[in-house]
Every structure is written in C-alpha cells, then in structure tokens.
C-alpha cells in the first residue's frame, strides 16, 4: 500500500513539474517575440549606416511592427475562434523564425521593413494568445504565478533584448544579431511542440466582449496610463545608443556593457514592483510615473558626461522594469472575468505606444536634437502620473466600499 501511495505521489509531482515546464515554454515564446521586436534599439546606428539611411528612418523598424502588433492582437483573439492554441503558437513561431532570417539577409531598408511587418503579426498574435493560457496549464491556485511567469517573458525581453542584440551586434555585426534570434526562435518552436499539449477551446471571444470592456472606467484608466508610460519611454529609449555615444560621450566598446547593465537594472525593477504591485497597484504605478519622468528628463539635464549617462541609464532601467508587471496586474484586476480580452486591449495599447513614441521621437531627433527629444518624452509619463493617481483612488474606493451584511436566519 505504501508503494502505491508513493508512486501516486511521484506521478503528481511529475505532473506538476510538467505543467511548469509548459508555462516556461510559453514564457520563452513571449520572450522570443518581444526580444525580436526590441532588437533594432541596440542596433539602430550600425543598421542606419549599413543601409544608407538616417537614424530617424531606421526607427521605423521599431514603429512598423508595433503598429501591426496593435492591430493584430484583438484580431488574433477573434480570428483564433476554436483553433487549437498550440497550433497557433507554433505557426506564429515559425513565421517569427522566417522574419528573423529575412532581417539578417535584408539588402535594403525596404526588405528589412518587410521582414518587420511579419514580426508585427507575430508580436500581436503570440502575446495576446499566450496571455490567456495560464488557466489551461496549471491548477487554479497557481494561475497567478503562471501568468506572472508568462508575462515575465515580456518583461525580461523588454529589458534584456536590447543589450543582447547590442552585444551580438558589436561582436559580429547587426545581421548576426538577427541570425542568432532566428536560431533561438526555431529552438523555442521545437520546445513548444515538444512540451505543450493540445489546447482546444470551447468558446470563442466575440466583438461584443471587447465593446463591453473598453467602455469600463478601470479599463480606460489602464489603457491611457499604458500609452503614456510606453510612448514616453520609447520616444527616448529608441535612440539610447546615439544618446550614450553622442550625448554622454561613451565609447562604442562600452555600449553593449551599459545596455546589459540597464537590462539587469530592469529585471531588478521588475521584481521590486512585482513584490508590491498586487497589494498596492495604484501606489506602484504612481512611483513608476515619477521615476520615468525623473530619469528621462534627468538624462537631458545630467547625462552629458559618461558618469552621468551611466548612472541615469541604470536608474531608468529600474523605473521601466516595473512598467509591464505593474500595468498588467492592473488590467487583470480590472477585468478578472475577461483576461484574454483585457490582455489583447493591453497589447494593442502597449504597441501603439511603442509605435507612436518611436515615430515621434524619430521626427524630433531628425528636426531638432536628442536632448529636445528627451524633454519632450518626459512630458508623457508626467501626464501618466495623473492617471496613475486616478487608478489609485479608484482602487481605494472599491476597497473601501461596504459589503452587504450577511442575512440572518429567523
């Protein structure tokens, strides 16, 4: 009897371990696609030089896929219908591999932008579909942690994708960075096919559900805050490499190291925010707004030396590291019964922020200069502070509402 119980216990342990392997496989998918999206940030200057264009035009390699991701995220959730989610993820990862190969071989900016169009479709689809998979992979009590890990792939990619790409680019050229991501995406595809079970769905998301959610005040506050934080960040961060080289006077050999330091700082910010955001969501978002405004504007004022630029870059990484987990937590709280819909809206807004922020930044950099762009970018998270305060007050009002007294029997 003891042997039977022991074997049953071991099987349950193996099942739990297998469930978490699947969660990490999905997290690798989000990490892969967001890292691919972020690669041009650390490669902007050498790409522009190699393809004979300006840094502002090269910024389109970030804004174009972001725009398409914003359009495709809700469409992917609607079009997926009853299709097996495992098949959808596999198909999108295959497209992502092809897009990276095409980017590595692109002879002109036109070819590179065409490849980045494919990245946009993959970005919207993978992020939106993956966001709703946690309840399908783990037990109910583990859904929160599994969701955090899946979205952790997004957070890690946002802060590590740039330094990884920059380091590979400095060592072997910007084309090698895209080639490396093609290999990595292919490996992630194999991992997903080897670990994920079939993931059919019993009900499809309808347009009505998007309409019902987008008119709700908590969702609207989250989406506006998301746009202002992300657009302000990417107005400035898209051009972090020329900022470090031209404004701070840092040698090219140190760029990869400093961007990696930014990534480590971002991971630290992610965990710092993650430790408090579930209990103090509004307060965490207020702190992020203040930190982003301070670091972005501070770079324009104090980042004109190697020491100043390095210090502010690290603080900037800590500030931005909390953005994804903070905003994602609020969106899940705002729509606990429609997480897939809220995730798709969040992904769309996030990528609209990336697209418009990097596009506006490119225009300002080309027409004025880098410090002017920094000061302009800082205005957006400053405005976001107002909405973060509104979120804090809204959450507090809900928490302070009196609950109905329980009925008593007579």
TrEMBL record:
InterPro entries: MFS (IPR011701), MFS_dom (IPR020846), MFS_Efflux_Transporters (IPR050189), MFS_trans_sf (IPR036259), Tet-R_TetA/multi-R_MdtG-like (IPR001958). It is a multi-pass membrane protein. It is found in: Cell membrane. Residues 22-396 form the Major facilitator superfamily (MFS) profile domain. It holds the Pfam family MFS_1. GO terms for cellular component: plasma membrane. Gene3D superfamilies: MFS general substrate transporter like domains. Signal peptide: none annotated. GO terms for molecular function: transmembrane transporter activity. The chain crosses the membrane at residues 21-43, 55-80, 87-105, 111-133, 145-168, 174-196, 217-240, 252-272, 284-302, 308-327, 339-360, 372-391. Keywords: Cell membrane, Membrane, Transmembrane, Transmembrane helix. PANTHER family: CHLORAMPHENICOL EFFLUX PUMP RV0191, PURINE EFFLUX PUMP PBUE. This is MFS transporter. It comes from Nitratireductor aestuarii.
